[in-house]
Amino acid sequence: MRSATRVAVLTGAGISAESGVPTFRGPGGIWRTYRAEDLATPQAFHRDPKLVWEWYDWRRSVLRTVNPNLGHYALAELEQKKGDGFMLITQNVDGLHNRAGSQRILKIHGDIWWTQCSACREVKSDHRVPLPEIPPRCACGGVLRPGVVWFGESLPERTWQQAQEAAENCDLMLVVGTSAVVYPAAGLAPLAQRRGARVIEINMEETPLSGAADISLRGPSGEILPQLIHE
Ligand code: BV8
Ligand code: ZN
């Protein structure tokens, strides 16, 4: 950590768990009856935009009640220390890294606080909770969609390219709170390792990445990240 000059961090839903945000594949949340893979798809939205937006509207209402945790703040501190030698790549769409003060963030799965118009394509920041109507509409009359990347959709090109570059050029990668099953994000740690980086995983449980990681720290990121970064 101390000697690393270029640090890349990949975060997943687990870093927000201690803030009270339900993870995708863990317990909790009324949406456990649905699988993210069933709702977070263009097909689901096309079939039932109301149901999909009810899920996002619920998640946005939960996010309005939570705050970043010590893990988010520790990563913002690490960015201060490492400057340009730091990049945060997140799969999360919850906006908590921004609220903790992180600035060098690559949101490879988009942002739940952005909407995109299906008709005029306008992308806007929209923090209304609850939404006035479901599905919400654009001023042009078109139906809005959440500004996130769904399963089967490609990642934002420029952002994904920057994420790959960060993984290729880092000498240390921290992988925090991800089950490492969603691709192409899960390929970033093996990519970093192939290019000679050391990989430290922080997770409550074993993941498909644990075996390959140089160090796998088992425990809550809200406790481990501050220790790792303060020491
Ligand atoms: C694409 C935004 C193609 C929406 C999300 C079969 C095999 C391999 C791949 C595929 C396949 N079939 C389909 C695919 C591709 C698919 C995929 O990977 N599917 C998986 C499910 C198999 N991927 C895609 O479709 C991607 N696009 O491939 O496009 C393409 C290519 C070119 C051109 C055109 C098309 C798009 C994927 C993006 C999907 N969008 N989110 C939304 O959020 O609503 S993904 C969604 O899952 C979230 O972003 C989430 O972050 C992500 C991954 O989940 P995790 O973050 O890891 O969270 P999870 O709950 O799973 O795990 C939490 C972890 O935290 C656990 O390990 C837990 O132990 C740990 N934890 C809990 N508490 C703590 C903790 N750790 C530390 N401290 C704690 N306190
Ligand atoms: Zn529009």
Give the helices and strands, then pairings:
Blueprint: E1 7-11, H1 14-17, H2 36-39, H3 42-47, H4 49-63, H5 70-82, E2 86-90, H6 96-99, E3 105-107, E4 110-117, E5 123-125, E6 144-148, H7 157-169, E7 172-176, H8 188-194, E8 198-203, E9 215-218, H9 221-230
Parallel strand pairs: 1-2, 1-7, 2-3, 7-8, 8-9
Antiparallel strand pairs: 4-5, 4-6
The structure holds ligand BV8 and zinc ion.
Q: Number of domains in the coordinates? A: 2
CATH class of the largest domain: Alpha Beta
Number of strand segments: 9
**So, CATH architecture of the largest domain?**
3-Layer(aba) Sandwich
Total helices: the number is 9
What is the structural class?
Answer: alpha/beta
Topology as a string of helices (H) and strands (E): EHHHHHEHEEEEHEHEEH
Instruction: Name the bound molecules.
Output: ligand BV8, zinc ion
Q: What is the CATH superfamily of the largest domain?
A: TPP-binding domain
Strand order of the largest sheet: 3-2-1-7-8-9
Indicate the overall shape: globular
Indicate the mean pLDDT: 95
Helix percent band = 25-40%
End-to-end CA span = 9 Å
* CATH domain topology of the largest domain: Rossmann fold
Largest sheet properties: 6 strands, parallel
- Unreliable spans: none
Query: How much strand content do the residues show?
Result: 15-25%
